Amino acid sequence: MTRPDSDVDERAPVLEQAIAEMREGVSVRDEWRAQLLSKLPTPPRRRRTIALWAPVGLAAAICLAVGMKVGKTRSESSVESAASRVRFSIRAPLAARVSLVGDFDRWDPAAVPMRRDGDGETWIVDVHLPPGRHVFAYAVDGDLKTDPYAARAVEDDFGVPSSVIVVARVGGR
Amino acid sequence: MSSLARPTQIFAGRVTAAADVEVPLVGMTDGALVKRTLDGDARAFTELVDRHAAACLRFGARMLGDRSDAEDVTQETFLRAFKALESYDERLPFRTWLFSILINRCRTAMTQRMRRERRVVVDNEVLERSTVEATQDAVELREELAKAIAALSADQREAFLLRHVEELSYEEIMSVTGVGMSALKMRVKRACERLQQLLVEGVRR
Hints:
The complex is a heterodimer of chains A (173) and B (205). Chain A is mainly β. Chain A has helices at residues 13-22, 30-39, and strands spanning 63-67, 72-74, 78-80, 85-91, 98-102, 115-116, 122-128, 132-140, 143-145, 151-152, 163-168. Chain A has one domain (50-172): Immunoglobulin-like (Sandwich). In chain A, strands 3, 5, 8, 9, 10 and 11 form a 6-stranded mixed beta sheet that branches. Chain A has a 5-stranded antiparallel beta sheet with strand order 2-1-4-7-6, with no helix packed on it. Helices cover 71% and strands 0% of the residues of chain B. Chain B has 11 helices and no strands. Chain B starts with 6 loop residues before the first helix and ends with a helix. Residues 1-21, 117-122 and 129-134 of chain B have low confidence and may be disordered.
């Protein structure tokens, strides 16, 4: 019987030879290195840290952006609130850890953790956002989820889809 | 990292005093090099490239079976690492952090390849680049090996290469792949069994 927790420490000679072969270094071409280094001085975009997170889980993402001040539940991504207090929520019953990431928190998954709501399935967090356009996503067990109710950001420069929320000034100020 | 605002100094060309001082980088830890990069010393990131490019290229080449694709994903990896350097957490070895990016780039490349309905091919260029004067037997072994690696599932290949070729610990592999310990060990075990079977069959032919 195969034990899932058993490592393969005793390897056959043919496998040992193969591993030794695969560990041999691969040469770095000078042209490739020069090309890479020439591309480095690009403007910083302190946004995404998702590279640390491997995709995990299949939690369904359903999000509502709620204007807390006016007490309305909105399914669109534009929120009007004098205090710019915005509730983000996502339904992810199987998730162990969910956080809100966006340009307002430098895409730091540790910055804005979300908490389970009373139903045990929805994760919520309230944040204060200044009026304007904000790009965001949900980190569900390390996997970024967009907001299906919000517009998709077009500048997914890291290959990661993200959403847009527009916080408007109350009274058109 | 604590110095979140520092990278601007690099890209805006306002190099800090720290970068003006030519200090030897060779003996520095990767974490120290990251800090120097964030402090505006571009040489520090070059040193990181020189330390880790070969391993990244090796993983990419074994994973994708193609030298050119490996160069592409490795270049993307370093560029993304550079942009995201301020998010690097020193508690994780830099190489492991780098591999977390590389793995995602490889996965993306494989997805794109599947869309193009291409198949993993034997990396002849890697075979030809060997620094060892290869005997006919060694060449045949490498060919069999490349075919055997390509015959593994992507998940098994990834887990096997990270564990036995790049020699990451299971904890590190878990952190960069998001796969649980039991599943990882099973993948590695199955990969070893399958590789061994394929290689033995190849030798017998």
